[in-house]
């Protein structure tokens, strides 16, 4: 795998792979191959496409530490959450509430709230003491009592804090709760062991660190001890494959996570995903995580040395940080715009976070050194304020 295998915008330093990964050449080839098949075979293409998602499962399973039939590429994070909540959120008696965090990505909260409202239950949010991270004691306190299901992010999308999936899954189970994970910011960046950790279910996307393209099909995991559960949102694509085309009026679910598919998948999008996954199959998550930790450590050192007025809100310990480094600064929005104008692509998250994601597959130390140098120049000259003024005038 070489940096040149990724089409980062020409001449730019791309540090936004935690939002949208750049196009891998293999993804483009596989997508074009699907277009050719469509052109040449039209409906007969389905002979080869029918179980396309299932054929990607071994690669997905390696990504998150699962068995092949525990994972499927389908839907989006939010639609997969709904499919899982419809199946597993069954409030009983007093044990009826949901737990999430005050730092969650909003779509997760919208999904959880829509289910809580149906059931007259609460979504209890684990508070943050500093506005960026979660304290273990607060997570521990929340996973208790009259809660039916907890929903946690593996990596917090703003600060990049990595939660201990194994520990909190065990705690939840000891207290009789089901637990689901949103692995949007860890899939393709941090290895997981969802099967061995006995995670109940999880979702993630493939458009960030996995580089499968804008709106790529998501990922869904259901532990095999739950394979007897019938999906709460059934559709014909989740039917047992061998008999799907018998068109029976009653739903006979597929074995495993495939049962959580609902409608016809986008074969073009699965094509891009197939190509994007090849890098992960080749390198493996252990090597990718090792390199990612080197890069985030290097960036942290540089920021400490060169930008002392900028606060790093990502936890310092390797075991508690994901794949990006979050810098808090009151002018983060203006700095982000000014970096982009200078050929460096970070991203900004309200209210004051500049996120920099040095990705193992295509970034290197020189990218980070240049980024920090440009940030130093901006802070010294104040030129980032001009960028904001110019953007307001337009
Ligand atoms: C942590 C997290 N959860 C959920 C979502 C929403 O994902 P989707 O649009 O695939 O439903 C995102 C999107 O970036 C995210 O970062």
TrEMBL record:
It catalyses: 3-hydroxy-L-kynurenine + H2O = 3-hydroxyanthranilate + L-alanine + H(+); L-kynurenine + H2O = anthranilate + L-alanine + H(+). Its cofactor is pyridoxal 5'-phosphate. It is an enzyme of class 3 (hydrolase). Pfam families: DegT_DnrJ_EryC1 (PF01041), KYNU_C (PF22580). This is Kynureninase. GO terms for molecular function: kynureninase activity; pyridoxal phosphate binding. Belongs to the kynureninase family. Belongs to the DegT/DnrJ/EryC1 family. GO terms for cellular component: cytoplasm. Pathway: Cofactor biosynthesis; NAD(+) biosynthesis; quinolinate from L-kynurenine: step 2/3; Amino-acid degradation; L-kynurenine degradation; L-alanine and anthranilate from L-kynurenine: step 1/1. It comes from Deinococcus yavapaiensis KR-236. Catalyzes the cleavage of L-kynurenine (L-Kyn) and L-3-hydroxykynurenine (L-3OHKyn) into anthranilic acid (AA) and 3-hydroxyanthranilic acid (3-OHAA), respectively. Its EC number is 3.7.1.3. Homodimer. GO terms for biological process: anthranilate metabolic process; L-kynurenine catabolic process; L-tryptophan catabolic process to kynurenine; NAD+ biosynthetic process; quinolinate biosynthetic process. Pyridoxal 5'-phosphate binds at residues 77-78, 105-108, 182, 185, 207, 236, 264. The modification N6-(pyridoxal phosphate)lysine is found at residue 208. It comes from the Bacteria. Keywords: Hydrolase, Pyridine nucleotide biosynthesis, Pyridoxal phosphate. The keyword Hydrolase applies.
């Amino acid at each position: 795998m070489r940096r040149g295998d990724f089409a980062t915008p020409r001449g730019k330093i791309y540090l936004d792979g935690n939002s949208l990964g750049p196009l891998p050449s293999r993804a483009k080839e596989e997508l074009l191959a699907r277009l050719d098949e469509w052109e040449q075979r039209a409906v007969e293409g389905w002979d080869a496409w029918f179980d396309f998602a299932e054929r990607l499962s071994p690669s997905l399973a390696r990504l998150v530490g699962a068995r092949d039939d525990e994972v499927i590429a389908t839907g989006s994070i939010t639609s997969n959450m709904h499919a899982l909540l419809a199946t597993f959120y069954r409030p009983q008696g007093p044990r009826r509430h949901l737990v999430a965090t005050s730092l969650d990505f909003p779509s997760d909260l919208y999904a959880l709230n829509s289910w809580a409202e149906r059931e007259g239950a609460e979504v209890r949010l684990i508070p943050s003491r500093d506005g960026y991270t979660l304290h273990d004691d607060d997570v521990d306190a929340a996973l208790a009592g009259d809660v039916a299901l907890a929903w946690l992010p593996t990596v917090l999308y703003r600060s990049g804090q990595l939660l201990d999936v194994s520990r909190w899954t065990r705690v939840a189970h000891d207290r009789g709760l089901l637990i689901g994970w949103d692995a949007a910011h860890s899939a393709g960046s941090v290895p997981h062991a969802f099967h061995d950790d006995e995670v109940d279910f999880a979702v993630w996307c493939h458009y960030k660190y996995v580089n499968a393209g804008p709106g790529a099909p998501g990922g869904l995991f259901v532990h095999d001890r739950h394979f007897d559960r019938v999906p709460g949102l059934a559709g014909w694509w989740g039917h047992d494959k061998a008999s799907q085309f018998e068109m029976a009026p009653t739903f006979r679910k597929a074995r495993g996570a495939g049962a959580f598919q609902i409608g016809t998948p986008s074969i073009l999008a699965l094509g891009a995903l197939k190509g994007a996954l090849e890098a992960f199959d080749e390198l493996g998550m252990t090597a990718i995580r090792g390199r990612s930790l080197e890069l985030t450590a290097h960036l942290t050192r540089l920021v400490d040395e060169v930008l002392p007025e900028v606060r790093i809100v990502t936890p310092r310990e390797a075991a508690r940080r994901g794949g990006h480094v979050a810098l808090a600064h009151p002018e983060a929005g203006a700095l982000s715009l000014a970096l982009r104008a200078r050929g460096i692509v970070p991203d900004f998250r309200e209210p004051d976070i500049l996120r920099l994601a040095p990705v193992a597959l295509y970034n290197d130390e020189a990218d980070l050194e240049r980024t920090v140098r440009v940030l130093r120049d901006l802070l010294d000259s104040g030129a980032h304020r001009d960028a904001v003024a110019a953007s307001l005038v337009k």
